[in-house]
Amino acid sequence: MLQPIAEINLGKLQQNYQFIQNTVDKAKVMAVVKADAYGHGAVPIAKSLENAGVFGFCVALHSEIDELISSGITKPILHTGRVQQGILDLCKTGQVRCSVNSIEDFQVVNKFGKNNNSKIKVHIKFDTGMSRLGISYKYSQDILSQIGNYKFIEVEGIWSHLASAEEKDDSFMQLQLNRFKEIKQLAKSLNLNVKFYHIANSAGILKTSESHFNMVRPGIALYGISPLGIPHSNLSPIMDFQAPVMLIKDISDGDSVGYNRTFTASEPMKIATVQAGYADGVPLEFSKSGSVIYKNNELKIIGKVSMDMTAINANNSNLKVGDKVSFWGDNTTHRIEHLSKKYGIIPYKFLNGISKRVKRIYIED
After folding, report:
1. Catalytic residue among 34, 119, 121, 125
2. What is the Cα–Cα distance from 129 to 133, expressed in whole angstroms?
3. Any catalytic annotation for residue 34?
4. pTM for this structure?
5. 259 included as an active-site residue
């Protein structure tokens, strides 16, 4: 079938997870599987990680929680967004934890718990510098000293999020870590029975053990991509984005290829048309300057990437119709870290850009 595919290696996923777990020692790992596990498929990714021993999962939407639970996932799930009625209904089971981002959230959760005669597990989010969700760290004393007033809330965790851990300048990350340490110390001085403290994303995990505390939230590193700009020797990309050759043809000197005639042949040549375009996740930036991998050989993209197709230079290759080429994967020159730097596209966009038209194929190697 002439259809683009994303071949996803669950064996490599588990190896990446094990490396992260070893790196953070005894800290619990909450795998971030929001946005369909960064385009890899939330359910198969979560099931594989659950089998590997992960502590739990982080998601951003109510629908993402529903998807995991309906698929049979039993490990804890942390919702990282605002409190909502539907989220609270799920929290009654004890599997789901909600994030508290304001004093109003405390009141809503406590009222819900009282009306349902159940304690609701929450993780309080403090804003230590991201300035999005979360209670400002400046109010941590006031907030934490009032915890005892909310009889139907169990504060299982306290967390924050690093804004710039992937940058070379660590000064702001250190400022956030210091603020978070102060919050942790305050909670302990108030004798609050908080089990988990977490602030580390993938970049924080790889950068410094100071960020690990006793829980971490890896995202992109689980999928084998380093957010620090260069490939990590202990992380293997789990996705190989491939597409089949649909037609091979000869063109003459002076023939142009693709929309807007951005490529014109300077000599007779052989070209191959590949069944994948920007509607599938091939960045438009690959036009004229990108390449694909075929049997470890690099073949140049020519002309403009279109919605469904991409043309490549097939000279001096033994390509046949139906053969698959790779846009990115584990090949040294086509690691996403390198492509990200070359094209100025953040790694996350490569992964999340893979559309529903692309068939996911899971292997256990």
Report:
1. 34
2. 10
3. yes
4. 0.96
5. yes
**Which amino acid is present at 304?**
K
Catalogue the E-assigned strands of the chain. 5-9, 28-32, 56-59, 77-79, 96-100, 120-127, 135-136, 153-159, 196-198, 215-216, 239-251, 256-257, 263-264, 269-274, 291-294, 297-302, 310-313, 324-328, 359-363
**Distance of CA 20 to CAs 187, 201, 219, 225, Å?**
27, 11, 11, 12
Q: Which of 188, 259, 320, 341 is flagged as catalytic?
A: 259
Backbone phi and psi for residue 345, each to the nearest 5 degrees, phi listed first: -115, 130
Give residue for tokens 């990590």.
Answer: 232
CA distances, 228 to each of 176, 206, 348 (Å): 18, 8, 12
d(CA 39, CA 27): 26
Confidence of residue 1 (pLDDT cuts 50, 70, 90): confident
pLDDT tens per residue, range 79-106: 999 999 999 999 998 999 999 999 999 9
> How distant is the alpha carbon of residue 138 from its chain centre?
30
Residue-wise pLDDT for 23-81, tens only, equals 999 999 999 999 999 999 999 999 999 999 999 999 999 999 999 999 999 999 999 99
Give me the sign of the Cα torsion angle 330, 332, 334, 337: positive
